[in-house]
Design brief:
single chain; mainly alpha; 2 helices; elongated
Amino acid sequence: MVTEKKIKISQFFVSIIYLILYPALIIVLSGDWLWVEGWIFNL
């Protein structure tokens, strides 16, 4: 029997926030917006 898993709205928003904030956090903590390796890592 196949069961479908539905994503809750809160899980969706947490995932989106995580995908946006984690890369931004790496760049902000580096202190250098021109850090090429950090941008490549975040892609």
